[in-house]
TrEMBL record:
The lineage of its organism: Eukaryota, Viridiplantae, Streptophyta, Embryophyta, Tracheophyta. This is non-specific serine/threonine protein kinase. Residues 99-380 form the Protein kinase domain. SUPFAM superfamilies: Protein kinase-like (PK-like). The keyword tRNA-binding does not apply. Keywords: ATP-binding, Cytoplasm, Kinase, Nucleotide-binding, Phosphoprotein, Serine/threonine-protein kinase, Transferase, Tyrosine-protein kinase. It is found in: Cytoplasm, Cytosol. CDD domains: STKc_MAP3K-like (cd13999). It comes from the Eukaryota. It comes from Camellia sinensis. One of its GO terms (molecular function) is protein tyrosine kinase activity.
Length: 406
């Protein structure tokens, strides 16, 4: 940048100070970045110092593209706040001032989970960010938010002991304070204006996946296997009765309380079941748990959850992960074209093996409803044992080697 003294170039015309007109970028503007005109950038080298209004500068050195990007983000935040202020509050809208977010728990595909308290209740807070990365168009983001608003209205009415309790949600509030390892000047993350927040009850027992991994060697008693399977089956049966398809049933999305009661969580990709199956297509879920029709891009319905339950039932009994020796591509292809399924141990009681096979049938129409699965599980007698034999006591049972676990 060329900087000259007043006596070399004559009198420099003084730049008018920007006013406070609406849309003007005053001295408090946050549009600071590469090419920004700050007093720090305009300090002259050599003797003496000059204020910005005593300088002249070359316009070709200004990064206008960077300024445009920052201006767009600034206006987007202002627009989002205005829209938020104008929209009427829903009954499920949380009061952000009652929410205390304490620390990060996990990061997932569809959001980031924090632990905190809401109105003195332990809660899990999931932040969903759609469109801030610039990948989604304004129309796509608006459609996602509209769909989310509609489905949250359904979730807040769900009430079942095997479904994680919904506390509330927020559609893009800017009043949340999120702790960060790389904080801003006030120690908190600056939320993107399009972020959505979901608040759920916090369960202290951790995920079912973690619990199964902890018991991968000693296994679970048959009574505990059936108890966990029944909890999951009853929760899914309830969701299906409310026309909700979870679409990502897996051990990682099931939580346990301190009494080992299982509750279904993570409704990040759940949706209200369409009346026309043709309206529900696409690969949604987690490989290894996804039904063949979902992997193949065909229309599907609630029976995709039944398939995933069958895989989870195998996991609960074996305390193992399926298809550990295959890649994602191999699993996807073999499940659809070769009818690949996890191998059932010989020590597994036929009553339980029968349920697994019915649930993961390749034909969705042949899979039972979850209400029927509940009845089948309730009919199993657990007083005579039948659990998976521990690895160090493998008396003729099909057991897995090497050591299992993620």
């Amino acid at each position: 940048m060329d900087v000259k003294k007043d006596d070399e170039v004559g009198e420099v015309p003084k730049t008018e100070k920007p006013g406070n007109e609406e849309g003007g970028l005053g001295s408090n503007s946050k549009l600071i970045g590469k090419g920004s005109l700050t007093s720090k950038n305009l300090l002259a080298k050599g003797t003496g110092s000059f204020s910005s209004k005593d300088m002249i500068f070359r316009a070709d050195k200004i990064d206008l593209k960077s300024l445009d990007v920052q201006l767009e983000k600034h206006l987007s935040r202002v627009w989002s706040r205005n829209v938020e202020a104008q929209m009427p509050k829903e009954e499920w809208e949380i009061d952000p001032f009652k929410l205390d977010i304490r620390y990060l728990v996990a990061r997932g595909t569809y959001g980031t989970v924090y632990r905190g308290t809401y109105d003195n209740q332990d809660v899990a807070v999931k932040l969903l960010d759609w469109g801030e990365d610039g990948m989604a168009t304004t129309a796509e983001t608006a459609a996602l938010r509209a769909s989310f608003r509609q489905e949250v209205a359904v979730w807040q009415k769900l009430d079942h002991p095997n479904v994680t309790k919904f506390v509330g949600a927020s559609m893009g509030t800017s009043d949340l304070k999120i702790p960060s390892k790389n904080p801003s000047s006030d120690g908190n993350i600056i939320l993107p204006p399009r972020a959505c927040c979901v608040v759920l009850e916090y369960l202290h027992g951790g995920t079912l996946k973690k619990f199964l991994f902890q018991n991968r060697k000693k296994k679970l008693t048959f009574k505990i296997v059936i108890q966990l399977a029944l909890d999951l089956a009853r929760g899914l049966s309830y969701l299906h009765s409310e026309k909700i398809v979870h679409r990502d049933v897996k051990a990682e999305n099931m939580l346990l309380d301190t009494h080992r009661n299982l509750k279904i969580a993570d409704f990040g990709v759940a949706r209200v079941e369409a009346q026309n199956p043709q309206d529900m297509t696409g690969e949604t879920g987690t490989l290894g748990y996804m039904a063949p029709e979902v992997l193949d891009g065909k229309p599907y319905n609630r029976k995709c959850d039944v398939y995933s339950f069958g895989i989870c039932l195998w996991e609960i009994y074996c305390c193992d992960l399926p298809y550990t020796n295959l890649s994602f591509v191999e699993v996807s292809s073999a499940v659809v074209r070769q009818n690949l399924r996890p191998e059932i141990p010989r020590c597994c009681p036929s009553s339980l093996a029968h349920i697994m096979k019915k649930c993961w049938d390749a034909n969705p129409e042949k899979r039972p409803d979850m209400s029927e699965v509940v009845r089948l599980l309730e009919a199993i007698d657990t007083t005579k044992g039948g659990g998976m034999i521990p690895e160090d006591q493998g008396a003729g049972c099909f057991c897995f080697a090497p050591v299992r676990g993620p």
